[in-house]
Specification:
heterodimer; A: 118 residues; 7-stranded mixed β-sheet; 4-stranded antiparallel β-sheet; 11 strands; 52% strand; globular; B: 111 residues; 3-stranded antiparallel β-sheet
Chain lengths: 118, 111
C-alpha cells in the first residue's frame, strides 16, 4: 500500500527541541518531493517547505525559513521536520505530503499533533 | 491573509449545485500555474480532490469538477450530498514566494 506514516503526537514545553518523522512506503521514496504542511487549531493549511529525498534539495516558505529544519534519510525512506526551540505558537497539526507530477499533493500522512505548553 | 482568496463558506440543499471560487494573481494562477483542490472532513487529513485545474483522481465522483480562467479557478459540486459537508482548499504555486500557496479554505454546509 502506498502511504506516508507519521510519528505519534508530542507534548513539549517551550524551549524544548523536537524532531518528527514521516516514513514513505509502497513507492519509490527518493523520486518524489515530500512537503510539510501546518494546520493550527481551527485554521487553514500552510505550506512550510519541501525536500527531494533523492539529493536532499530543500526549499522553505519565507514564513518558516529559519524556524524549522527539513531533512530526509533516503536509506530508510523517511523525512523529518525539526525545531531547535519550540514556542507555544508551534502548537498545530503537521502533515507530511507527497508532491505529485505537478505541484499537487497527492498523498497525505495522517498528521502529527504537536502541543507546546508550559 | 492568504495569497489565494476563497469565500469563507457556501451552503446548499441536498441535490443542489454549489461553487467555490479561488482568486489569485499574476504570480500564481494568472502566471499559468495549475490549481489543485482538497477536501478536508473535520478530524481527518486533507484529500486531493482535483489536480491540474480539472482532473479527478481515481475514486472522486464526476459530480465534482474544477475549472480555471485568468487569475481565478472554481470548484463545482453538483447533486450535493450530506457527505460533501467539509472544508475545501485551493492550492497553487507562486513564483514570487517560490513555493506552494493555499487558500484560506471554504466550509461547505449541506442544509
Amino acid at each position: 500500500e502506498v502511504q506516508l506514516v507519521q510519528s505519534g503526537a508530542e507534548v513539549k514545553k517551550p524551549g524544548e527541541s523536537l524532531k518528527i518523522s514521516c516514513k514513505g512506503s509502497g513507492y519509490n521514496f527518493i523520486s518524489y518531493w515530500i512537503a510539510w504542511v501546518r494546520q493550527m487549531p481551527g485554521k487553514g493549511l500552510e505550506w512550510m517547505g519541501i525536500i527531494y529525498p533523492g539529493d536532499s534539495d530543500t526549499r522553505y516558505s519565507p514564513s518558516f525559513q529559519g524556524q524549522v529544519t527539513i531533512s530526509a534519510d533516503r536509506s530508510i525512506s523517511t523525512a523529518y521536520l525539526q525545531w531547535s526551540s519550540l514556542k507555544a505558537s508551534d502548537t498545530a497539526m503537521y502533515y507530511c505530503v507527497r508532491r505529485g507530477v505537478g505541484w499537487d499533493f497527492d498523498l497525505w500522512g495522517r498528521g502529527t499533533l504537536v502541543t507546546v505548553s508550559s | 491573509q492568504s495569497v489565494l482568496t476563497q469565500p469563507p463558506s457556501v451552503s446548499g440543499a441536498p441535490g443542489q449545485r454549489v461553487t467555490i471560487s479561488c482568486t489569485g494573481s499574476s504570480s500564481n494562477i494568472g502566471a499559468g500555474y495549475d490549481v489543485h483542490w482538497y477536501q478536508q472532513v473535520p478530524g481527518t487529513a486533507p484529500k486531493l480532490l482535483i489536480y491540474g485545474n480539472s482532473n479527478r483522481p481515481s475514486g472522486v465522483p464526476d459530480r465534482i469538477s474544477g475549472s480555471k480562467s485568468g487569475t481565478s479557478a472554481s470548484l463545482a459540486i453538483t447533486g450535493l450530498q450530506a457527505e460533501d459537508e467539509a472544508d475545501y482548499y485551493c492550492q497553487s504555486y507562486d513564483s514570487s514566494l517560490s513555493g506552494s500557496v493555499f487558500g484560506a479554505g471554504t466550509k461547505v454546509t449541506v442544509l
